[in-house]
Batch of 2 targets.
Target 1
Amino acid sequence: MTEKKIWKGSDQYICDPELAQAFHMARVLAMPLLIEGEPGTGKTELPIQFAKDTDKPLFVYPAGSKSNVEQFVAKFDHVKYLRDSQVEVLNAQREAQGVSKKLSTGGRSTDRLDDYVIRGPGALSYSSPNSVLLIDEIDKAPREFPNDLLYALSHRKFVLPESGKIIEVSEQDMPTIVITSNREQELPTAFKGRCIYHYIAFPTPELMKEIVLKHHPKTDEKVLNKAVDVFYQMRKIGLERAPATRELLNWLKYLNAYDQEEALEHIKEMDSSGILIKTKADMEKVKTRAKYSTTNSI
Amino acid sequence: MFDSLPDHFRSHGLSADIKTLLLVRKSFKRGLITTLGDLYLVLKGIVPTDPSQYGPFAVAFYDYFLDIEIKKGEKLEHAVARSASFKDWKSKKLGDDDRELDFNEITTLVDQFLDEVHLTSYDIQEILSGEAILKTDDPDRKDTAEQDDVSSDEDVTKAADYSKYSLQELKERMERVLEQQRRKHKGGDHWVGEEGRSPYGQRGAAIGGVRVGQQGGGKMARAVIGDRRFYPVDKKAKLSDDNIDVALTLLKGIEEESIEMRLDIPNTIKEGVKMGGLFLPIEREHKEKKTEVVLLIDNGGYSMTPYIEVVTRLFSKMKRRFTHDLQTYYFHNTIYGGAWSDERRTKYLKLDKILKLAKKKCVFVIGDADMGPYELSDSSMKDWQELKEHFRKMVWLNPTIERLWPMSDTIPIFRQIFPMFPLTPEGVEKAVQEMNKKFVKS
């Protein structure tokens, strides 16, 4: 058994100890890690940063409303296959007519069905030992998708279409699989049962400050405190679309263009709140609140 | 191992079975579990499949492994403080010192107890690498200063003493398991050795004066108990901010299956190649699942006012989900020949426009259906009938209390036309089931 060391995050990525342990557990048990949580809690970042930090190949499959297992595992390119078989017929005819020039099939042969199989991220990561595989936003995929994945996940093997070739991976070489979900759709229980489940709660203000500093290390402390304070207040007032980590990071990127005093003034005036607020109704709500609070300023 | 665990966890509404046990055993074998804190985290990764199960999970865990019963609505700290396990641990820790402790002292002790419960091998690593000690040294000194005036070195040694009493219960339990394991599988030695070698001895020394649980599982467990986000939603409760998400996942279940024939390109090619390049089209059934939703919302009148906010919030969330497939119309009390396409009711649409929408759309009417009998005119009734005939799938969601429906003048009339459900997560679930019933043309 290869020793798998616990990964605690990197210079760019703060990994919550509990998440780190769940991730470690998933790797040791060779099971996929299913991470659920609000947007902006760093779900997708985990496998990306892990792959980067440990120098492992990363394969990403972003799920969408049209996702299917074919795209994920492998597809058979029927059009190319048709073209090549036609080319073969043509070449035979040309030869019969004594024409020496032949059309090329680009090294593919219709005898070798494997030539026409286009491998998706699933098949690619299974054939590359100890790689990292990210299935992003699986809740966006049609309901059948997670169910169809079950087989591959529990048997550690894929069967390629048409060619029938089997890609199998041993438990040691099993890729590190991370699946993320925003909980827009309930995933099938059987699917969840095959995964290590971890729910990321939204970071506390203290952790958030650390996260910000990882991204923007030069942020002024006073500006940071005030901005994080405002950010959490906004999350509290029940907006339609509460700002998430990404928005805060963008906002601070903007504020960092100014010196301390100017930045604080910008926070007070809320003139850059378009970075944090994404709907018109929310904007109005925030503005009315801001009016109340300008009297008791910074 | 832990034979009774699945039953116990199931009694708390969690799903656990023999597979859970096998995974726990695998985790033991692979060295994932050396402390109770580790076991907590492993089980937490395996058993709950939703944040709403974290609460019951923590309760079940404390009950099973520590005999600490957390009553409904009780804080974890309180449950611990009155438990026999804690008292036992405390008396061993404090030795002869059996004077009455004040509130602060108890709090500190409970914290220490929880830290020990949730101490994981990860924490131990952290501490050994010195980071945690440096980080938490100062604030912690103050905490213990009142209890014993000793230098930090001595404190650590002293701590090592009580380590061997810590969580006696767990040890006993684990030892029993260990024995079972040994008898059944020789491979069990692996983690026995490990256990004997490291965690208990180190744990005590490591934990002396250093607060670790605050950052690991202990924090989560404490946060989880008493936070209703981590408990299952009461499906009979009125729709509110807390359970909107549950209702929405249910709404997502409306399925529209359509079958059409499409050219089957792969098979056409395959057969064509077999026939030497003669391609005959082959068709196959193509199933598509699609949900298109129409909302008819009663947003006028005093009777609807208390519900407007929650209804709009539910559907503003829905809008984000069905982005392209959601149409909303508004009416006041009942419909008279048409409805409005905006919330403020300025853009009027005649009924025949609405009736031009695809028949297969799922229509939800949301309203109290309660009005003076004179308001519900014959022509209005006819409008509703027409809608009902046009849309195959149409249900009514009523925010008022179901018990009172028969008392109303008009609700019984509407119920004769539409299947009506209360606007609760359970009601929404039933409405969705109703929608999913296979439509049989009469």
Target 2
Amino acid sequence: MSEVTPWSEVLELARPATVQTIYMVLVSTLIGVVGGLPLGVWLHMTSPVGLSPRPVLHRIISAVVDVVRSIPFVVLLVVVASFTRILVGKAIGSTATIVPLAIAAIPFFARLAANALREVNSTVVEAAVTTGASKMRIVRTVLLSEARAALVGAVGVTMLALIGYAAMAGAIGGGGLGSMAIQNGYYAYDDRVLYSAVVLLGVLAWGMQLLTDWVTKLVDRRRALANV
Amino acid sequence: MITVENLSKSFTQNGSRVTALDNVSLDVPDGAVCGVVGTSGAGKSTLARCISLLEKPDSGSIRVDGTDLVGLDGSRLRAARRRIGVVPQGDSLLRQRTAAGNVALPLESAKVPAAQRRSRVAELLDLVGLSDKASVYPDHLSGGQRQRVAVARALAAKPSVLLADEPTSALDPATTDSVLTVLDRARSELGVTVLVVTHDMAVVRRIADDVAVLEEGSVVEHGKVLDLVSEPGSRISSTLLPETDQAEPLRPNDRSHDVVAEVVLVGFAAVGALLPEASSRFGVELSILGGGLTRLGDTPVAKFRVGLSGERSESALKWMIERDAHVRRAPVSVDGVAA
């Protein structure tokens, strides 16, 4: 039996690992939303129930989104490694991991966003059409605005998925809490480090969920009382 | 004013062609309220969607103040849409915006400056009687209040035509009344031409000047409500006016009366005075065998089955016809017995 790692050393490992995980998840979520939202809007607009139905184009975008989404993340990591190297100069470390994370996040969020937009009541959208609003205006003032709670929820789901993906990336040198759990914990037979990392991942996921719920409540005005 | 001419629209449904509208024509003069009635499946919704410019008809024209709005695209279509304010069927308010925010929506599309927007929104909320609900979100409004906000929104961009699609379908009678009052006020205060598509005859009874009856995609009756009610075979007449006596067919006379007839009287003067005056002037005994009194808009309208006895019964009836009473009698056969 190896001797137990003192808590001070666990803490020394955990602190940068947590920061790295948060960094990876936040940056890739941001890229995922920035890239995925327009894609999701495009998906919805071209769909049969959208404002500019384009069946063929819709099927093509849909297929691309779903294919990328269905690639297992571990495979995606390896597949885009050379691309990552060109982009950030190296294939390991947390900054490098952001590249495959963002590539996974974009179609993931796009699909969730398209679903959220589809839930907006079609009567409301048509009412806006009859006011003579342009499509761009309807996207902004009706679709995105009415679906805001669902969209924030979708950001939360994306973040949680990315925490999982980022941990997976840790297995092949991605840094963060995943690395800590696998490299410093599992491979080193160090249960204290392993389980500390697991707990921290759990707390992080829970915290992000709480944050999402709070923001959702903040942006959702539906049940808000009059502020007279 | 709005003129719909020869509007046709068909859909392909499960491989077969379904004609929703077949050469529909109707026109509503400036500042009038026209009710478009019909059972479900008669083509009401399709007509409403065509006039809302949400659906392109296969043929025909929709002219507002003389300009044809069918077949426009892009920015010209959007400009055309501002000439027709639409109250869509069902819940159509943005739930993430206050009542005032909803009313402001068309003004934003029309790029009206913020200060003007605010005063216009205040005016409209006042018109629909919801000034105190300006900053309330739709989830906290009742069905009737939501519908009135929708009317205010439809009027925001100063359209010349207001189209309301089943505005009262989910409402109870009291709330229905508040929505109809608002539509009526839009006509009288803003001079908007109002088109109400509905299956509810109470709407026609309360606010319509004109009516169009849609049946299987065609207009089978169209005209002024007060003209149509006095026409014998009119469907509008039989639904809007009181029943006289459904069990007994109308006969030219019976055992106790020399003449039996159905009389439709329109307006205060006729309803109040015509029958007693005819009776005293010609010395005939006049009894009411059935029917009753109703009100269409502000106009009292009566439909009675009357029996007249006395030598001058025929003259009394003729005198009433001369004074615009609408009289229907059963045909008389040669020997004076009912045919």
